[in-house]
Amino acid sequence: MFLLAAVIFRFSATQIGEPDIWWHLRNAAYLLQQHSFPRVDTYSFGAAGSPWLDHEWLSEVPFFLGFKAMGLQGILAVFSTVLVLIYAGVYYRSCRAGADCKDATIATLLAIFLGIVSLGPRMLVFGWLCMVGLLLVLDRFQRTAKGLWLLPPLFALWINLHGSWVFGMVVLGIIIASGLVEGEWGLVVARRWTPGELKKLLLALAVSLAALFVNPFGYKLLLYPFDLLFRQQGVMKHIEEWQPVNFNIWIGGLALAVIFALLAAALFSRRKWKLDEVLLTAFALWAALSHVRLLFFAGLILVPILAQRLKLFPPYERERDKPWLNAGIMAGMVGLTIFSFPSGATLQQQVSGEYPTAALVFMQRQHITGRIFNQYGWGGYMEWYAPELKPFIDGRADIFVYNGTFYDSLKITSLKESFAILDKYKIEYVLLKPNQPLAYLLYHSSAWRLIYEDKVAKLYQRVPAAATTLSGSK
Prior knowledge:
By secondary structure, the protein is mainly alpha-helical. It has 23 helices and seven strands.
């Protein structure tokens, strides 16, 4: 597990530049300073005044406290710790399911690779930590018929951390449903719940549903995940992590390898499959293949099921243990992590290589106050580091979908009525990555001029006298 923790830390140290972490930090700062939640958007001009629900408010607080204590190092420490806890739970569940510790290590490493799309300072990691907690509680209940009292407080916490509590309810429902029948169908077996067990499960489900209302937004927070599903179709269609898995890239190939591994386990292992394992596997595969970001979830569900069927190493023999060697390796991993923990300057250099830090400094020195159209992933960074420079759009896609600016942003960047829409919003400045098609278009337009550029960003300014003429020519 210490070796796995070193792998997790290695990946985490390169993922500090998560686009949404910046506006999450601003949310937490507002909450802790004002002792209230922001109810309308005051960060951008593209959705200014729009009603807004800070649905991940509790996850934001640890990241902000980490940043306040240690800067970017604090953010890294928070999400690295959460990730280690998540995969420690996966490793533990794999071992408890019957996997050899070495097989469990290989399987957990596979889960880490599946989750790499989300290995960053994201509120989502707190949701998946709750998922691991739910699975551990349900494992214990299946072994001992005890522990379900933990579910209501878990769900009360979960809904305030992240909207993935819905997946927790689905998993809980699958576990309950799988015990409503009994039988054996080839390698698949099912055991019916006793009346007492079923009563406990249904009571825990009912109280957990009630516990979801323990939040500062009431029923609105319960409806938010469904709002995402049914009202925010633009998010689903145009944001990459919500797209189906592409098997032509490495993460898609890895997902395909997991599927084949499960099929091989089903064909060649004589170990019985419990009905809940079959149903959870089907649900996890469907969710993950439909949306790339849910490969993380699939790793949490599938790996303990797969690990117990792996036979890559000889069985564990306690008498061959070498405690002092193990202790030395563990101490070495801890020492290596501490020694290689990146400095704040190193992390800032990494951030500045991904975000327009120098361009924002230039804009502040020039006292730029006009309306800015920005690269989608840069809005949150602008709101945190230069709040006076209100962006057109940021990663809070929901409010921009509702008022239409999300789609207008897509039209501008895809060169569909770009000039007309820039005129519509009276955009005076455009801040983009250098290699964007829109940057090329503006560079060759007499209505715009380049006033700043570096390796990360280009800043264009509207030429005042040309705005009306250009709109007419379009």
